[in-house]
Specification:
alpha+beta; 111 residues; elongated; 3 helices; 2 strands
Amino acid sequence: MVRRNIDPTSAAEVFRPALQAELQERPYAFDIQVQLCTDLERMPVDDLTVEWPEKLSPSVTVARLRLPQQDISSPVHTGAAFVQHVHGPAPSLTNGQAVRRSGRARVKQEF
């Protein structure tokens, strides 16, 4: 990966051109990792402010996201049509709302 110095105040759009340049130059791969809850007392599932110790639950790779080398600068990949395609019309949840709901469900299932 090339280290790019990006000044967010230098233009209205600074991140899109940087991403376009990166993906035109090379492919990327990212490991998606999770931690499994092994101790509900020390690793609460409803409190996002508590850091889970790696000693109790080391990260486990569950997937790899691969972004092939590509040109994403065409109008098909920008603008309102792209945002609608990526995000869809569904309303967004507040921060942590989905985690709290699923966390409670997991706790009920485990006990």
